[in-house]
Amino acid sequence: MFRKSERLWGKAPLMSDYDAVIIGGGLHGLATAYYLARNHGMKNIAVIEKRHIGFGGAGRNTAIVRANQRTKENLSLYKEGLELWPKLTAELDYNLMFYNCGNLNLAHSEAALSAMRMQVASARFFGIESHIADPKECKELVPALNISEDITYPIFGGMYHPPGGIVRHDAVVWGLAKGAAKLGVHIHQGTEVLGINVEKGKITSVETDQGTISTPRVLNAAGGYSASLSYKMLGIHLPVSVLTIQAMVTQPLKPLLDHVVSSGAYHCYANQTLKGEIATGAHMDPWPNYTTQTTAHYIKHQAEALSEFLPCLRGVRFMRIWGGLADMTPDMAPIMDGNDPIEGYYTDCGWGYFGFKSAAVTGKYMAQFMADGECPDMLRPFTLRRFEQHRLMGEMAGTVVYSPWN
Amino acid sequence: MNRLNRLPTLRVNPSEKLTFNYIGSSCQGVKGDTVATALYANDVRIFGRSLKYHRPRGLYSMDGECSNCCVEIDGIPNVRAETTLLRNGMNIRPQNVRKSPDTDIMGFMDKMDWAMPAGFYYRCMHKPAKLWPFFLKQIRKAAGLGRISPDFHMKGRYDEIYPNADVCVIGGGAAGMTAALTAAGQGLRVILLESRPWLGGFFDYRTAEYTPSQEGISRTLCERARELSEQLENAPNVRTFVHTAMIGAYSNNLITAFQTGNKSDAFDERYMEIRAKSVVVATGCIERPLLFDNNDRPGVMQVGCAHRLAQTYGLLPGENAVFSVGHDLGLEAVLDLYDMGVSVACVADVREDGQDPHLLEKLTERKIPFMRGWTAHTAHGSKTLEKVTLSTLSGAQHREFDCDTLVASAGLTPVTGPLTLAQAKLAYDNHTGFFLPEKLPEKMYAAGRMLGLQSPLSIETSGKLAGLSAAADCGTSLEHEIKQTREELRNLAGPVRGSKFVTAPVRGQKSFICFDEDTTVKNIDQAIQAGFDAPELIKRFTAAGTGPGQGGIPGHNLPLLVSQWHTDSGLAVQPTTVRPPLVPTYLATYAGAKHDMCKRTPAYESQKKAGGVMQRAGVWKRARRFSDDIRCQEEVENVRSNVGILDASTLGKFRIFGPDALRALERVYVGDMSKVSEAKIRYSAMCNEDGCLLDDGVVVRRGENDYYFTTSTGRAGQTVEWIRYHARYENWDFSIVNLTDAFGVINLAGPNARKVLEKLTDADVSNAAFPFAGYREFAIRDTIPVRVMRLGFVGELSFELHVPSSFMQTLWELIEDAGKPLGIRNFGLEAQNLLRMEKGHVIIGSESEQRTTLHDLGLGFLWYRDKPQAKTVGAVALRQTEHQEGRLKLIGFRMEDASSRSPKDGSVIVDSTIRGYVCSARHSFALNEPIGMALAEPQLADTDTRLEIFEDSGDDRLYAKVVPMPFYDPEGEKLRI
Ligand SMILES: Cc1cc2nc3c(=O)[nH]c(=O)nc-3n(C[C@H](O)[C@H](O)[C@H](O)COP(=O)(O)OP(=O)(O)OC[C@H]3O[C@@H](n4cnc5c(N)ncnc54)[C@H](O)[C@@H]3O)c2cc1C
Asked: For residues B450 and B171, what is the distance between their CA atoms, to the nearest angstrom?
C-alpha cells in the first residue's frame, strides 16, 4: 500500500517473431495470453491492440457475472468462470472487486416463470445455487421493487442466483495485463493488425501497421471487429451480426440496490456499482451497426422501464450513457474454434453482450487449445461448424434473432 | 445578508420573500433566487462534504459543474443548488455529512490521503481474502453522494414534446440570439434553447460598455442583451425555450433537451426531442479551474460565480477578496465588485501580458494592487478561507494576504459538448488554448465566445454568420450575405489569446483537479507512474470526471496536465469523451408522460365483465382464465362436454393476393400451397433457414390469386416483413395486407357448438355440409359477414369465426345469448392450454425452442419436399437435419404413478446429466391423471422409456414414462361430429 506504484505493464519493442500473436487487447485476448504464459510455459507472446487495452467491450460492459445459464454445455463453463474471480484476484494480486451480491431475474408472466424454472433446475442439477422467488421474496431482496398490479408487466416472481454479482471490468483488464506482462507477454497498444498470412493452409505471419510478425499461431479475439477481420483477412465468413449495445449510469447514491435486478419483459437490468451509481442497460437496437454511438430513444426507454419496476429511481438522474459493440451469433452463444480450416488460426468471438463473465475461464481453455492444438472438451460444443449443421445452441429459448432482416 | 437591490442586472425580486427549511431551521430567500444563492444569503458557506476526504465544500461555480453544492431537496438527492430555483416550502438538506456540514465527524478522513493513492483499492483490500467482504461493505458505505428511499415517490408532472424546426439554436447568449434572429429573418422556423431562466448569456450580468460601430449612443452589455431578447420575443417564427437544458445530439440533427416548468406551466419538467434541419451551437464558455493547494476551500470561487452572485442576485461574495485570474473577465469582475463595496487586497494574473489596458487603468485608478505573472498558491483556513498565499508562476516568490474570498480562475474553456456529441473531433488550438472542433459536423455551426471571441461585436457577427449558414442549409440562397458577413467578421477583433496555465507550483497533494471524486494533481501523477498514459485511462484509474459533474471541472485541465508531464508519449493531447446527457436528467423526465401501449381486442370489456383475469401477453391484454381456479377445471370441462367461447382475435390475419401470391406462399410455407382450395383450410408451418419452426397457421383460398391466412399471435407483427424479405430478389407481383386488427376471431368449441351456431344463421352448418377442416363464408343474422373455419386446436367440434372488428362485439353478444340456455361459458388461455395439450398440439415457444426443427416436433410430415423450384425457406436444412443424431425431440409422457402430481413446467429430465426438460405438464381432467410434453434427447424418445424428473426445488425426483400423443381422442373422432 505504501510502496511507490510501478508500471502495471511495461513497454516492449515489437519483435519480428512470436510463438503466438493475439489480436485484440480485450478481456478474451489478455486472458488467453495470460494463461498461455502461466499454464503452458509459452513466453514469447504478443497481444496486439489497435487502441488501448480495454478499448472494446472490455471497458464498456456492465460487468455482470453469473453462472445460471440455460444449457448444460454452457453451465459448466460459466460455473468455473464464476468461481474463478476470487482465485484470480489472489493470483494476480490485483483486486478485481468481485461483489457477489447475487442476481435477481424478474418474471412477468407464467410462461417466464416456467422458463426460469428450467434454468433453476438445470443450475441446481449442476450444483449452482439458484431458486425461484415469489413476489414477496423479490420485494424483500429489492425493497425498491414495485410488485403491485398496476404496471405494464406485473411481477410474477423471479429467479434468484446468490453467487452472481458484479466485477470491476477495468480491474480485470489491468489485472490480466499486469499478470501477463509479468510472465513476459508483450502488450503492444496502438498497433493494428492489418493482415494475416497463410501458406499451405498454415498461419505464417501477421501484418501490423508497425511491421510484420512471424508466428505459427494467431488468435482472433477482436470482439466486435472479429467477424469483419476474419472475412477481410482470411475470407472466412462468420455468422455474426454486429450491433450497438448501450449502457448508462445514474448519479452515485448511497446503497439502494443490494442485488443485480433484471427483467426480460422490460428489456432492462440495473445494479448498483461499488461507486454507488445505478448501472443499467438493455437489449440492443436490432439493426447492425459498427458505430458506438448512442441513441435518444434508448435512454428514454430505459427511464420508462425503470420508472415502472423501480419507481423510486424516477427521482434519480442519468449521468452518462455510452455504447459498445456486440458481436451476435444466431444462437447467442460464442464461437470458439481453431485449426479449422487454417492450421494455427484460432477464433474466440461472438460473445455479444455476455462475454465478460466468462472471459477469464475462456482464456484458460483457449490457451490450452492453442498450446496443444487439440480442442478441449469444454469448448467443443462452440465450434463454428454447428451453424453449417443447423445445430444451434439452446442459450436462448425463444426466437430472438439478431440478423439483418430483423 | 443585505441585498443590493438597485442593480440594473438584477434577476431577483428582493421584495418577494420565499420561505424554506434548511436542516430544521426556517430561512428566507427571495423570488428569483436559486437554492444556492438563497443559502448563500443565509450565510451558508459549507454546503456539503466531499466524497472521500469529507472536506468542506462550498459555492464554487454558478452552473453546477460539480457536486459541491448538491443538496437533498424534498427527499430527492443530488439536486444542483446552483441551477435549481428556490420555491416556497422547500425542505433542503446537505449531503455526505454526519451531523452538519460545519461539524462533520468524518472530517478526519482528510488526513488519510496518504493511505489512498490513485487506485489504492485495486492494490490492497483483497489481502487477506477474508477481509474483502468487510472492505466491500466499507466501500459501499463510503461511496455515493445522495440518499434515496426505496419507497420514494417522485411528485410532479412530466411531459414530452417532439417539435420540428428549420434551425435549432443552442445557447441564448448574444451569439445565439443573433443567430436565431438572423435565421428567423429568412422566414425560417427557429427554436432557441437556453439553459438559464433568461436569455443573455455572458452579456446578461455585465455593465461594461457595448459599443456598436455605427451608433454613438452608449449602452451596457446587459441593456444590449435585453434588447436582443425583446426582438426575439417579437419574432413570430422563433420559439424560445428558456430554463431548457440541451442534453443530447444524435445523428441527423436530433437534439434532446429538457425544460423546467414555471408555476403556470402544465409540467414540472418536459423532455424534448427536436428535429432540425440545421443547428447552431453558441453555448459559450465556462471557467477553467485554477489548480493550487486547497483550491476547494469554501470561500474560493470562480470569477463568474462571484460576479454573478453580486450582479444577478445582489449578494456580495465576501468582504475582503483576493483575485487570481487568467482572463480579462476576471479584471472586469474585480472592478465591479470593488465598486460595490468589496475590499480587494490584491489581484494576481497568471498572464505576463495581454491584459486590456483600459481595465488596468481602472485598477490603477482604484489603487488595487495588481501582480502580473502571479497565481494563487495555497488557500488557508481550517474550514473556510482565512488567508491565501500567492506566488510567482515558478514559485520563487510568495506573499500572503488575509481574505474571506478568493476569486480564482485559470481562464475559460468552451462548452463543446453539443458538438462532440454530434461526433466533432476536438484538437488543441494553441492560440486560444481551447480544444476546438477540427471540422464541424454536417449542418452544424458554432458561434460566439466558444470560439475564443471576446469583443461583443465579433460575438454577434459570428452569430449572424452561423445563422445565415444554417439558413442556407434550409434551402435559402445566401451565398452573398454569407461572404459579406465572413468578411465583416474578419475585420473585427478575432479570438483572444488564452492562458495555458493549469497548476500553481505546488506538490499537488491537496490540489483538486476533480472535486466530485476528490482527485488531486498528485493522483494524476500516480496514475501516470502506474503506466496509464492516455487521459481516457487516467480518468478511469483515478475516477476524475466520473462523478455527478462529469467533466465539468476536470474536463479541460486533465489533458493539459497530462501533456505537461508526459511530453514523451507522442500522444496528441485529447480531452476525454463527453457523453450524454450533458446535464444529469431525472429518469422521470426522460420517461415523460406514461404511455402503456397495450392492445385490447373488441371483446375485452365483455370478457372482463365475465370475470376474466386479463393479463398481458405480448402487445395484447388477454383473458387468462375466468375464475380463481388456476387449473380452470370448469372452463375445461365445459368445452369437453358442452360449449365454450374463446376470444382468439390476437391471431395474425393476412390477405395476400396478386398473380404471384401463390409463389410467395410456397416460398415461406413448408407445405404444398398449390393444393389450397376454396372450401378447405390447409394447416401449414413456416421455418427459418435452419429448419426451425417459426410459425404455424392455416391458409385458405378466397378467389383467384387471393388468399387469407393466419399466423400465431407472436408472429403477427413480423409476417409481412418476413414474406417481403424472402421475396426480395424475385420481382413478384403480389400484395399483402395485415388484417390482424381488422378482424376479430371467436372460437366456438365443444360438442354443442353447432347448436349455438345454428341459432344464428340460416347457412347449413351440418357436418355433411360443413365438415371438419372446411371453410365457409356466410352471414350471421343475415347481416354480419363471417369467415368460418372448422378447426381442431382444442380437440372438439369447433368453429372459428373471423368477423370484421366492428361487428365483433355484437357477434360476441349474439353467441353468448344463443348459448345461454345451453350454459355456454367463456374459456381463457389457460384452459385452452390444457385442451390443446391433451391433443398433443404444440405452441411455438412453449414446446419449441429457437433451435427446434419441424422434425424435432414430429411435424416433418408438413414439409412437402417435392417443390424445390419454390426454394422453400428452410427446405435445405429440413433435408439435412431429417435424420440428424443428437437433437432434442418432442415427447409426451404420463406419470409412472397416475395419482402423483404433475411436474412443474421447466423441470429437467436427468440421468447422470441433463437430458431434456418438461415444456408443459398439467393434470388432465379428461384422463384424470397428469400428462406432459417434453423436449428430450432421442434415446429417451421411445414409448415406455422411464424419465427421471428433477424439479427446480431440487427435492424429490418424479418419474414418468413416455407415451404416444395425442393423449385425448387419438382418432380425432370428436372433431368430426
Ligand atoms: C454496453 C455493454 C454492456 C455489457 N455488459 C455485459 C455484462 O454485464 N456482462 C457480460 O458478461 N458481458 C457484457 N458485455 C459483453 C462484453 O463486454 C464482451 O462480450 C467482451 O468485452 C468481449 O471481450 P473481447 O475480449 O472478445 O472483446 P473486446 O473487449 O471488445 O476486445 C477486442 C479488442 O480488439 C481490438 N481490435 C479490434 N480489431 C483489431 C485489429 N485489427 N488489430 C488490433 N486490435 C484490434 C479492439 O480495439 C478491442 O480492444 C457488455 C458489452 C457492452 C458493449
From this structure: 11
Q: CA-CA distance, A343 to A352, in Å (whole number)? A: 26
State the nearest Cα–Cα gap between B694 and chain A, in angstroms.
8
The better pLDDT of the pair B929, A400 is held by: B929
Residue contacts between A and B (CB atoms, under 8 Å)? 304
Please state, in angstroms and rounded to a whole number, the distance separating the CA atoms of residues A357 and A366: 15
Instruction: Decide if pLDDT at A24 tops 80.
Output: yes
Interface contact flag, A316 B587, Cβ < 8 Å: yes
Q: What is the mean pLDDT of residues B602-620?
A: 93
Contact B488, B460 (CB under 8 A): no
Residue B918 host element (H or E): strand B914-924
Distance from CA of A9 to the nearest CA of B (A): 7
- β-pairing, B693-703 vs B585-586, is unpaired
CB within 8 A of A33, min separation 6: which ones?
A20, A22, A45, A47, A176, A180, A185, A187, A363, A367
Q: Which residues contact A374 (CB under 8 A, 6 or more apart)?
A: none
Cα–Cα distance for residue pair B856/B846, rounded to 1 Å: 14
Q: Could you read off the pLDDT of B82-111 as tens digits, one per residue? A: 999 999 999 999 998 887 888 888 888 888
Identify the DSSP state of A24: -
- How many angstroms away from the CA of A395 is the closest CA of chain B? 9
A58 Cα to the center of ligand 1, angstroms: 4
* Each residue's pLDDT tens digit, A108-138: 998 899 999 999 999 999 999 999 999 999 9
The CATH number assigned to the domain with range A103-162+241-328 reads 3.30.9.10
* Chain A interface disruption, residue of B98, B121, B590, most A CBs within 10 A: B590
Contacts with A174 from chain B: Cβ below 8 Å: 122, 541
Q: Which domains does chain B have, with CATH numbers?
A: 1-150 (3.10.20.440), 158-286+414-490 (3.50.50.60), 292-409 (3.50.50.60), 512-572 (1.10.10), 604-649+742-836 (3.30.1360.120), 653-738 (3.30.70.1400), 885-971 (2.40.30.110)
Exposed / middle / buried, residue B907 (Cβ in 10 Å: 0-12, 13-18, 19+): buried
**HEC profile for B413-478?**
EECCHHHHHCCCCEEECCCCCCEEECCCCCCEEECHHHHCCCCHHHHHHHHHHHHHHHHHHCCCCC
Give residue A328 CA to ligand 1 midpoint distance, Å: 12
- From B290, B362, B366, select the one nearest B325 (Cα to Cα): B290
Helices (H), A142-282: 169-182, 226-234
Based on C-alpha coordinates, what's the Rg of chain B? 38
Q: What's the average model confidence in pLDDT over B118-124?
A: 88
What crossing angle do the helices spanning A169-182 and B535-542 adopt, rounded to 10°?
110
Residue B543's closest chain A neighbor by CA?
A: A275
Q: Residue A229 and residue A244: Cα distance in Å, rounded?
A: 18
| Residue closest to B11 by CA, chosen among B65, B69, B62 | B62
Question: Are A265 and A275 contacting, i.e. CB atoms less than 8 angstroms apart?
Answer: no
Ligand 1 neighbours, Cβ below 6 Å, are A 23-29, 48-51, 55-58, 60-64, 192-193, 221-225, 229, 245-247, 281, 324, 326, 351, 353-357, 359
Rounded to an integer, the average pLDDT of B348-368 is 96
Contacts of A95 in chain B (CB under 8 A): 121-126, 132
- State the Cα–Cα distance between residues A296 and A118, nearest whole angstrom: 36
Do B530 and A72 lie within an 8 Å CB cutoff? no
Phi, psi dihedral angles at A19 (to 5 degrees): -75, -30
Closest Cβ–Cβ partner in B251, B256, B529 for A5: B529
Q: Which CATH number fits domain A20-61+169-239+331-388: 3.50.50.60, 3.60.110.10, 3.30.497.10, 3.30.700.20?
A: 3.50.50.60
